[in-house]
Amino acid sequence: MNVFDYFFDSIEDWEKPFIHNSKPPVSFNSIYQNSSKLASYLKKEVGPQKNILLISPNSEYFITVYLAILKSGNVCVPLNQDTEPENLDYILEHTESKLIFSIERLKIRDRVNQEISVIEEQDVKSLLEGEKPLSTEENFDGDLIAEIIFTSGSTGKPKGVTISHNNIRANTASIIQYLNLTEDDRMCVVLPFFYCYGLSLLHTHLKVGGSIVLNNSFIFLGSVINDLKNFECTGFAGVPSHFQILLKKSDSFKTTEFPHLRYVTQAGGKLHSVFIQEFIDAFPEIEFFVMYGQTEATARLSYLPPLKLREKMNSIGIPIPGVEIAIVDEEGKKLDIEKEGELIARGENIMKGYYKDEIATACTIKNGWLHTGDIAKKDSDGYLYITARKKEIIKVGGKRVSPKEIEEVILSVPEVIDCTIEGFEDELLGEAIKAIVISNKGVDKEELKQKVLNACSKKLSSYKIPQQIIVEITMNIGITGKKTRSK
């Protein structure tokens, strides 16, 4: 079954608003009609299973195009608006995509060669004229790829996680079940839709017939607080930095009443218990769901029931419905309670694999199990605890960052002999980035730091720029000859 038809199974004719804060509000029927008509155009002009890039902030336009690509049987590749030119070129070449949907102000046409077609928001309106909604394909293969979500890879090159229609259906149904979502729920969305966590909010609220409020201005905390109140939102989802900023940077958040806010969810990295405690003390009536997942799992693998939050404060909870989780040793043998090992998972939500990367896929999915790279243990009640991260990836405000990508940029500075990128705990971001730069004696350290910052600013997104730069003249090398981490 095409996941589009799964979403609109019984709501395609609803005039109820789905995007609640649009002017005017956008109904389910409007989204269904426009995305289905655009799907009809794409099926005729592009054909099935072609990779189509989508670069846009959260909006009616994004949702319409995203759903149209899925409905047409093509593959959506949603990208961050701040994707570096080098990575955009790599993804275009890697996916062999010839079509990009974007918005005018991003000037994507100026960044790609003439062989790539770019369809902007104003173009879509004319494409819909004369088109009829695409009919349901009865024998559609749900194992076909629906989307490719690119994440930072350990080599510095983005890795494409391939998600099928069935993957999305399975994860959507599971999340709806444990969050008890209904058509009365309204989510305040501050997470971007190019991020699997953000997409899960779109999927679940569309399926249950709920609604969403789009807020692309989290930096203006007052707008978030006002949206939660004025649009009577029942849910809010964020990564650790969202909660830390609301709790520490807003003068009014903790003293504001949110009578309609039923629950909040937190994923995208560890939120330290002091912040969770601060939130639930301020809002004891609001359910707080700690969640854990990976893009490779479509979004979600485990959740901590709010009733267990105080008792199991540092836990990532239990497997979501339909997912099995185990802790194994290096030989793949399942371990007993309180024994540390790698967390692995299986279920219908686990990705098909990494796009055009059989080696990485084989290293990550073994005998049907997703190897997360996270070290964890299980207590006697079956609750899971992450104890370490096996992979090098650093999570900054919920975004995955490859150290190697940053190291390559810094090493382009002539005075730099070597560079090591590390993560360190940060009150607002969860993790922040530290660069340990090795140079020769006699170098002006402050000048070198400025050169490093200039190089990073030119080539990297802002969240990848190191917050700390330490210049040293001695490289720490262990007995094996490998670099050791700075103390």
From TrEMBL:
Record-linked InterPro entries: AMP-bd_C (IPR025110), AMP-bd_C_sf (IPR045851), AMP-binding_CS (IPR020845), AMP-dep_synth/lig_dom (IPR000873), ANL_N_sf (IPR042099)
Domain of life: Bacteria
Keyword annotations from UniProtKB, A to Z: Ligase
GO molecular function, one term: medium-chain fatty acid-CoA ligase activity
GO biological process: fatty acid metabolic process
UniProt name for this protein: AMP-dependent synthetase
Ranges of residues in domain AMP-binding enzyme C-terminal: 405-470
Domain AMP-dependent synthetase/ligase: 17-355
Family assignment from sequence similarity: Belongs to the ATP-dependent AMP-binding enzyme family.
Any Pfam family hit: AMP-binding_C
UniProt organism field: Muriicola soli
